[in-house]
Design a protein that fits this description.
The complex is a heterodimer of chains A (248) and B (268). In chain A, 82% of the residues lie in helices and 0% in strands. Chain A has helices at residues 8-37, 45-84, 87-103, 106-121, 129-160, 164-181, 184-196, 202-216, 222-226, 229-233, 236-247. Chain A starts with 7 loop residues before the first helix and ends with a helix. In chain A, 52% of the residues are buried. Helix content of chain B is 76%, strand content 0%. Chain B has two domains: 1-67, no CATH class; 82-267, no CATH class. In chain B, α2 (44-81) runs parallel beside α9 (207-221), α6 (141-165) crosses α11 and α8 (192-201) packs antiparallel against α11 (234-267). The chains are: A mainly alpha (248), B mainly alpha (268). Chains A and B meet through α1, α2, α3, α4 and α6 of A and α1, α2, α4, α5 and α7 of B.
């Protein structure tokens, strides 16, 4: 794994340089707009530089950690579950992973709270902290269940080798249908809830799981069959949230 | 879980907060490993080290963004959408709400920030590494990331235009999905799943905070827009357009390859 020909220092420098390259566009955009378009000086250059240094260090650690920890972990579990031969436990794992990673997601908590405020404003639920909290919690559980179901169905798809587009087309049809039926206030929140469910730790794990499964099962192609779990996981919450909006 | 107990280190780098987010994931993974697979992990030390690096990296990454880039980006979104700035850029002397053409800098900012944040998005880097390996190197990590970033840039720009003009969100989204379906019918089969996944990964740690600030700034500075209703929805654009751009990228690559083959044939 570690190439002896390259010294550790050179590897670390290379990894840091790669992160710096990844971040350069943001720094350039913000600098250009701040200095040339808005024509305002940068208020606190020192803290800006420290912040950028932290971002570079953080991104480097993250990418190295992916290869050391998250990818082997996801693949190892996919391999283990595929070879254990129990469909029930494989599907239970998929649902648990989806539900568990989503229910505590901070972005989702923020969206759920905001959605509760919108709902109270629109008179859909009673105004008051208790009613709003219950609504927000219900929304979070709904989205988490939606992601769990998505991974469950997505894993089943990898096992059976169904083409991804049928699932996605079916899902979109569901979204369009629900958009017509659901109250207008919930539509924007529903569309956004699909985007907030895929956190930075979930994505590598779920991708490794999918690719690992597709690699372990004979007749499946890691590229054709291994991807698609995330797409489905960002689609089902839209449908589930609009159903939730109709029921409440 | 750690929210009630004070966590001294969190004032510097939010390690405890990151750990909080990860605990449910860890619980599921460890639970299944111990109870269902009943098999020790291969190389547990390395995996633990990697997990720790991911956590620490993410904590540093978020803290750095929060101290350096997000405040500036948010402030910028507010300043660029402020009526005074838009009025000045549009030549001034406009009574009432400025016309959609007055928001030129906003569209440019929307495109640039959408593109730039996507290039730095850690989950996209992860998916690109996996896609590169799964395709045995035929899908380049940089090519995929640039295609996705272009898609996000265009999507956010169109989303900003929608907020300015006040047209209904679902017409854009439905049209977009129909377009994606048409592309799916014609695109090379191996890319389809990956293209759909690219839509989901773009909206995570880096893009969402800045894009949400832009949406909120726009909808609160334009008269007759409800920030709560119109501010939402930019994210939906950011996850729809990368699908198109990645499918388009694959179609283009296939087209070029076919053209080259035909050229070879006529040449011989």
């Amino acid at each position: 794994m570690i190439r002896r020909s390259r010294s550790l220092a050179a590897q670390v420098a290379g990894a840091l340089l790669q992160s710096l390259r990844d971040l350069a566009p943001i720094v350039v955009v913000i600098a250009v707009f701040q200095l040339l378009v808005l024509r305002e000086p940068i208020a606190d250059l020192a803290s800006l530089l420290i912040g950028i240094g932290m971002v570079v260090l953080g991104l480097t650690l993250f990418v190295q950690g992916l290869n050391l920890g998250l990818f082997p972990l996801g693949e190892g579990m996919a391999w283990g579950l595929a070879h254990q031969g129990s469909l029930f436990w494989l599907l239970a794992f998929a649902f648990g992973l989806g539900f568990g990673t989503t229910v505590a997601e901070p972005a989702l908590i923020a969206v759920a709270d905001e959605a509760a405020a919108v709902a109270a404003d629109g008179g859909m639920i009673a105004t008051g902290a208790a009613a709003q909290e219950a609504y927000a919690l219900g929304l979070r559980l709904t989205v988490a269940a939606a992601v769990g179901v998505a991974l469950l169905v997505g894993v089943l798809r990898i096992l059976r080798g169904w083409p991804i587009q049928y699932l996605i087309i079916g899902g979109y049809a569901g979204v369009v249908l629900m958009t017509a039926l659901a109250p207008a206030e919930i539509v924007g929140i529903a569309y956004d809830s699909g985007g907030v469910t895929t956190s930075t730790i979930t994505v590598p794990l779920v991708t490794a799981l999918g690719v690992g499964l597709a690699t372990s099962i004979e007749g499946r192609n890691p590229l054709v069959d291994g991807f698609g779990l995330i797409a489905f996981a960002s689609l089902t919450p839209m449908i589930f949230v609009m159903v939730y909006g109709m029921l409440i | 879980m750690f929210a009630d107990t004070p966590c001294a280190i969190d004032t510097l780098v939010p390690i405890c907060a990151t750990l909080d987010d990860v605990l449910p994931i860890l619980a599921v993974l460890v639970g299944f490993q111990v109870l269902v697979l009943r098999r020790p992990l291969a190389n547990p030390r390395r995996i633990l080290l990697g997990f720790g690096m991911v956590l620490l990296g993410l904590a540093f990454f978020m803290q750095g963004l929060e101290t350096a880039l997000f405040p500036l980006g948010r402030l910028m979104a507010v300043q660029l959408t402020a009526p005074e700035f838009v009025g000045a850029a549009g030549g001034g002397a406009v009574a009432g709400a400025p016309d959609w053409r007055a928001y030129g800098w906003v569209y440019l900012f929307a495109f640039a920030i959408g593109f730039a944040t996507t290039i730095a998005e850690p989950s996209l880097i992860a998916v690109a590494i996996k896609a590169n390996r799964a395709s045995a190197g035929t899908i380049g990590t940089t090519g995929l990331r640039v295609a996705v970033a272009l898609g996000v840039g265009v999507g956010i720009t169109l989303g900003a235009f929608r907020i300015v003009t006040g047209t209904p969100l679902h017409w854009y989204i439905i049209t977009g999905y129909v377009f994606v379906l048409l592309q799916t019918a014609f695109a090379p089969k191996p890319i389809i799943a990956l293209a759909y996944d690219s839509g989901g990964v773009t909206t995570s740690t880096v893009t969402v905070p800045l894009v949400a600030a832009l949406g909120l700034g726009l909808s609160s500075s334009i008269p007759d827009r409800n920030p709560l209703l119109d501010g939402f929805g930019l994210i939906a654009f950011a996850s729809l357009f990368p699908i198109m751009s990645v499918l388009g990228y694959a179609q283009l690559t296939a087209l070029v390859a076919r053209g080259r083959r035909e050229q070879d044939r006529t040449g011989n």
